Amino acid sequence: MTAPSTVQLLLISGSTRHGSTNTAALRSAAAAPPDGVTATVFAGLADLPAFNPDHDRGPLPSAVTDLRRQLAAADAVIFCTPEYTGALPGSFKNLLDWTVGGEEIYRKPVAWINVAAEGRGVGAHASLATVLGYVGAEVIEAACVSLPIPRDAVGPDGLITDADLRARIALVLDIVGTYHRDRPIE
Predict the structure, then answer these.
(1) What span, in angstroms and rounded, lies between the C-alpha atoms of 140 and 179?
(2) Cα 169 to Cα 145: distance, rounded to the nearest angstrom
(3) Which of 13, 27, 34, 67 is the most buried (most CB within 10 A)?
(4) Is the Cβ–Cβ distance between 112 and 80 less than 8 Å?
(5) SS3 of 24, please?
(6) pTM greater than 0.85 (yes/no)
(7) What is the DSSP letter of 106?
(8) Own/partner pairs for 133-137, CB < 8 Å, 24+ apart?
(9) Whole-number pLDDT of residue 1
(10) What is the total count of domains within the chain?
(11) Residue 125 maps to which CATH number?
(12) Residue 95 lies in a domain
């Protein structure tokens, strides 16, 4: 069996803030993905209801169904999240909690970009690594990068203006895409 020629990436920001550099990084990635890669930014973080294991059976809330559908359709996922009070933002942790009851992220290649200033964001990414271990995701360590993005590097269109930063973001997508294409097909 041959791997598909185009790798489908789902990009998930852990921020609901309008001017988020995390979301700007992912929007920039989706705007100019490398050849052979299609990238979609997940836009439903704020729509997810609070996780309740009792609601993880039977008919799921529509926002959860949409999240799981997009996760299942993706060949790989790239996360970019801020750190709040030394850990993951609550809304983003809630998104991850909704993945526990499904199989959509199990053995799926994942990576993350840390756009925080040097030395920041470490707690969030340690928490993310722990959660991804619990759900059985396959972390692509070579694509997990710290790429500080200052607020003034985001243009009025919500995209990263600095060509070097955009190229480094595209490299992450290229690493994930190449990794996916080179994986043995089961």
Answers:
(1) 8
(2) 9
(3) 13
(4) yes
(5) helix
(6) yes
(7) T
(8) 134/100, 135/96, 135/99, 135/100, 135/105, 135/106, 136/105, 136/106, 136/107, 137/77, 137/105, 137/106, 137/107, 137/108, 137/109, 137/110
(9) 43
(10) 1
(11) 3.40.50.360
(12) yes
